[in-house]
Amino acid sequence: MPSGANRRRRKHASERRTPTPPPDDDTPLAVFFAQFESFSFNARQSSHGNFKRLIRTINSGPDDPERRAARDGFKDALVQEFNELFGTDGNDFAAWQNLCHVLRIVPVPDTIQGCRQRVWDTNVNLVDLVDTARIGTPVRLFASLEELITYTIRTGKVFPKENAYQGGLLKELLREIRNPYFGKRRNGSAKRKERKRKLRAAGGD
After folding, report:
1. Residue/partner pairs of 153-157 with CB below 8 Å, 24 or more apart
2. Is the pLDDT of residue 199 over 70?
3. How far apart are CA 71 and CA 24, in angstroms?
């Protein structure tokens, strides 16, 4: 029968092998907001809502260097948060299946191309998609592209189109998913160009 000392050693070894989940304040968005000492990050609020509160705290004009730096840092954090939640490999079948689950696609296709197509055909705001895992509420889906465009312009929730931290999975979504700020579908129509113009005017990428 093992001695008390041996049992304690085994217990401590077991505890070291047990992975500790990262705390909520260790996510890219939380780390970004923690830079600002006068700001209190609310993990249950949307990332966009937190950022709007931060801008009010900074209390500077749109061309102020601090405000521009905050906006750039926020975009980086959004992309890094997506990577942590959904992965970076565009050829990872499990990652595409996970997206299907989050987007409530039923049944989930049994091929990677099938998953890709169903995700691409879904009207969803990517900022909301990033928020849904942290907030714990189902992501909002839109019946049409026009509804999504109206929502995106009204809320200003425009996901960064280009970013150094993008992984392969996110690049595929930014290229193909049916969101107004992705430039899809490649028909060069006057209506689509007008949508892009409106989004730029609203402060999007």
Report:
1. 153/180, 153/198, 153/199, 153/202, 155/48, 155/125, 156/48, 156/202, 156/203, 156/204, 157/48, 157/125, 157/127, 157/128
2. no
3. 22
42, β-bridge pairs: none
Single-letter code of the amino acid located at 91: N
- Whether residue 21 is preceded by a cis peptide bond, meaning omega within 30 degrees of 0, is no
Alpha carbon 171 to chain centroid distance? Answer: 12
The percent of residues in the chain predicted with pLDDT above 70, rounded, is 73
Mean pLDDT of the chain: 79
Please provide residue 139's backbone torsions phi and psi, each rounded to the nearest 5 degrees: -70, 145
* In contact, 32 and 25? CB cutoff 8 Å: no
What amino acid occupies position 166? Q
pLDDT, tens digit, 9 for 90 and up, residues 113-132: 999 999 999 999 999 999 99
- Closest by CA to 159, choosing from 140, 145, 179, is 179
Confidence of residue 164 (pLDDT cuts 50, 70, 90): confident
Looking at residue 138, the DSSP 8-state letter turns out to be P
- Cβ-contact 130, 78 below 8 angstroms: yes
Q: Which two tokens stand for residue 53?
A: 């509160």
Separation between Cα atoms, residue 119 and residue 140, nearest integer Å: 14
